[in-house]
From TrEMBL:
Residues 1-31 form the signal peptide. Keywords: Signal. Belongs to the 'GDSL' lipolytic enzyme family. The keyword Signal applies. This is GDSL-like Lipase/Acylhydrolase superfamily protein. It comes from the Eukaryota. Gene3D superfamilies: SGNH hydrolase. It holds the Pfam family Lipase_GDSL.
Amino acid sequence: MVEKKGTLVIVELGLLLLLPLLSGALDIVKAREIAARYNVTCILVFGDSSVDSGNNNFIVTTIKSNFLPYGKDFFNGRPTGRFSNGRLATDFIADAIGYTKTIPAFLDPNLKLEDLPHGASFASAASGYDDFTANISSVLSLPRQLKYLMHYKVKLRKLVGQKRAEDIIRTAVFVMSMGTNDFLQDYYLDPTRPKQFTVEEYQNYLVSCMANAIQTMHRLGGTKLVVVGVPPLGCMPLVKTIMDTTTCAENYNKVAVSLNSKIQEKLETISTTSRMETAFVDAYGIIQNAINNPALYGLSETSKGCCGTGTIEFGDSCRGLETCTDPEKYVFWDAVHPTEKMYKILAEEAIKALAQKFRV
């Protein structure tokens, strides 16, 4: 048991994150038992629109979703800046642990100090591992997000004292989810990076940026990290529309597969050379399987989003549009982002993958 302590921590961390999204109440009970065992009360989130709870509402950028139909299935049908019809996976994680039903945006001026011990999202829609990606859309780069983590620590210390604050950070689950925009809004649209890097060189650069960020997280006290891989880029309705294809654009998907492989290799190295426990969620495989076998998940529409035509609209171009009658049947909410249902599926399938990997 002692030799395998690190592996068991990651296994149980994976269970903590994902079991609650299975249907039974017992899963939530188990998750809370695991949280209690490791004193996990806090989720700290970094990334892009897949995990942005609304930080972009409070910065000067055009990349926002704080209007309907976004949020139509959120509590009280309220748009919050989340790029989906409802909650994100990180919100369900927080709900499972039992301290809060959602992860708040750190920049929200209405954020209550007493909520800080249970976590915050520093994520910013349209961001990426590459600082240049964030600069294109005037959003929060990964280093900027980490600077806000420092601000978070200062506020936390004032609230609960230095020792308790350090304990909260040490036992917190750090979640990082990004990489999509580095290609879709940067490398494939802006001429700067292609002049500097081949695709493979750019992937290596992104992984080095990720590794630097993880070093900073570790230096600031983080010990548990879950990295969400890049989804199948070529299956996004917007990409298929641009590429004028009815099937997934395989050249885009190959780039995603390759990047995910490099991310996993780096995480394994980090786990063996530092005291940072890491886990990887294969968003690519999970979403691809849902697209290829929709009936297994109670889905029926995999080729277009729920908002508008579902082929090109996302963000501001989705504002005020009519939506499909049943988002529960859709993989995509808009032409880029998943539905709340798909976030649940991601969680359900990821726990199976983690359980198999570590033979739970």
